[in-house]
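Standup notes
- DV: blocked on the single-chain target, sequence here:
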Amino acid sequence: MIRWFSGIIVAILVILLLLYVPKEGVQGIVVLLSLYGLWEYFSITQHEEPLWIKVAGLALGGVMTALLVFWAKGADQFLALFAFSLMATLVLHFFGTADFVVRFRHTVFFYFGIMYTSVLFSFWGKVRGLEEWRFWVFLWLSGTFFSDIGGYIFGHWLGRHKLAPNLSPGKTIEGLIGGVLFTVVAGFSVRFLFFPSYPAGLLVTICVLMALVGPLGDLSESLIKRGFSVKDSGKLIPGHGGLLDRVDALLFTGPVVYYFAKYFS
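- DV (later): unblocked, structure below
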């Protein structure tokens, strides 16, 4: 019950924020969420590292996300940020007394975390900056969440063939098909509300893509957690775990929706 209650509260807050907070405010909130997600990631992967490394990582990640959301508009800007963050990561790990093999392992985990959170969260802000943003944002959110719901219902009802048993024993191919169906229904509902003239063929295409890519985000988060033997990324949302536990699929569907909207809007 607490899982459903907290989920409804979060959904209402997200809708209110999207409808009544200006674009720049929403994008600023995205930067803060990316910082919290990075802190959860560091808590899993960098628990042996000193606090100053984690703080430096948060500063680097926050700047990275902010520049990706508010500044980077082309390939040159993206490449500049990736190069700077890589160089900064290496320099930060020059210092310390840990064994160099251990230190390099921490360096890799550190840089991956910056990329995982800063880059993927930044697409949330970019989706909010699109024309017809109401259509694209609500298509992205509802499509991703209904894919999860459809996967759960069909998986429990008809699930026989495991999708990735080592990472997520509960996910099935039948659940994936159910997720596709639920996402398409959600997509046409959003189209009716916000963009009735959007071509049906393109809508079905982006819905299928979201339904296929979303579970990959979920499985990727499971890979990280299983690699460090943790059940949840945190305890932010009662009944749901941490922020990364709740938004893992959204992190993968965000770039898909953004680039689809740019080229097929």
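- Follow-up: The two ends are 39 Å apart (CA to CA).
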